[in-house]
Specification:
CATH class: Alpha Beta
Helix content: 40-55%
Radius of gyration: 22 Å
Distance between the termini: 40 Å
Order of helices and strands: HEEEHHHEEEHHEEHEHEHH
CATH superfamily: ATPase, nucleotide binding domain
Strand content: 15-25%
CATH topology: Nucleotidyltransferase, domain 5
Number of strands: 10
Largest sheet: 5 strands, mixed
Number of helices: 10
Number of domains: 1
Strand order of the largest sheet: 6-5-4-9-10
């Protein structure tokens, strides 16, 4: 099985691309198809369907260099939503079929599971920072103030506004503060939220996935905390939607169990699982992780 999976690496890639993951989906043994695990079976010819994730070699190296300079040794690189799925998706969701959206600052990454395996991965160039920048420009307020307004007051679905409250915001430069209203924030934020969700919907359609994810959409990452986003997503996808927080580590503090830490917790779980399969002793590794999260 390992040799069959390794053989799938022999694909031709553009000059700057490198393989990040080779994820097996199913095996074919002679005339028998859709085999999840072929160990113990007998046959003449074994083939594998795999999902290959590639990345820019220079971009990957720049990230590794930055992390190394921060005093952390990099043992492996992992696709961001693949790590987040470790901490956020249940086994039932992976089996039935679900799509995880990790909404970061500059991009939103998606990973779709069905039948317990990865079926599709992609990224779209819209994230939480775009909402912040839209508010900064639309309200003529500094970016830090726009970020605070987004977190405290912004609503991604106008229909959910119950009260058009007045909000005092800072102006650019030495100009005096001004007053805006909640509906004005929604008028700025909702179009960007719709753009993000429609880009995701188009990507899922390109992958032939809408009928394969009946368990629905799982939102995580810092951008998932925008008010009204789950309700808007349910209308766009016509699927159940939930916001996921990371799980799976013992003694997790309340601060770490927030959507923005999903990738970090998922990387810990991925690293621990990889070391366990490799037979490494986890004591020192987990001790370091515990001290890291204690200071988070």
């Amino acid at each position: 099985m390992r040799r069959a999976i390794e053989a799938a690496r022999g694909v031709t890639l553009p000059e700057d691309r490198e393989i990040l993951h080779v994820l097996p989906q199913e095996f074919f043994l002679d005339a028998q198809a859709n085999i999840r695990d072929a160990i113990g079976m007998v046959g003449q010819r074994l083939e594998a369907n795999v999902h290959i994730v590639t990345a820019s070699g220079t971009a990957t190296q720049n990230i590794v260099t930055a992390v190394n300079r921060a005093g952390v040794r990099v043992d492996d690189t992992v696709l961001e939503p693949f790590a987040s799925a470790e901490a956020c998706l249940t086994q039932d969701e992976r089996e039935l079929g679900a799509c995880l959206l990790d909404i970061g600052g500059g991009t939103t990454e998606l990973i779709a599971y069905a039948g317990g395996v990865v079926r599709h991965t992609a990224a779209v160039p819209v994230g939480g920072d775009h909402f912040t920048n839209d508010l900064a420009v639309g309200l003529r307020t500094p970016v830090p103030e726009a970020e605070k307004i987004k977190r405290d007051h912004a609503q991604g679905c106008r229909e959910l506004l119950t009260e058009d409250i007045a909000i005092e915001i800072a102006s650019v430069g030495d100009r005096p503060p001004r007053t805006v209203f909640a509906r004005m924030l929604a008028d700025i934020v909702e179009p960007r939220a719709q753009e993000l969700l429609l880009l995701i919907r188009d990507e899922l359609r390109r992958g032939g996935l809408p009928s394969q994810i009946p368990a629905g959409i799982v939102l995580t990452g810092g951008g998932s905390q925008l008010r009204g986003l789950p309700e808007l997503a349910e209308r766009v996808f016509n699927l159940p939607v939930r916001i996921a927080v990371p799980r799976g580590l013992a003694e997790m503090s309340e601060e770490v169990t927030r959507p923005e830490y999903s990738t970090a917790v998922g990387l810990v779980l991925y690293g621990a699982r990889t070391r366990r399969f490799a037979g490494a002793r986890p004591t020192g590794f987990m001790g370091k992780l515990k001290s890291m999260f204690a200071g988070a």
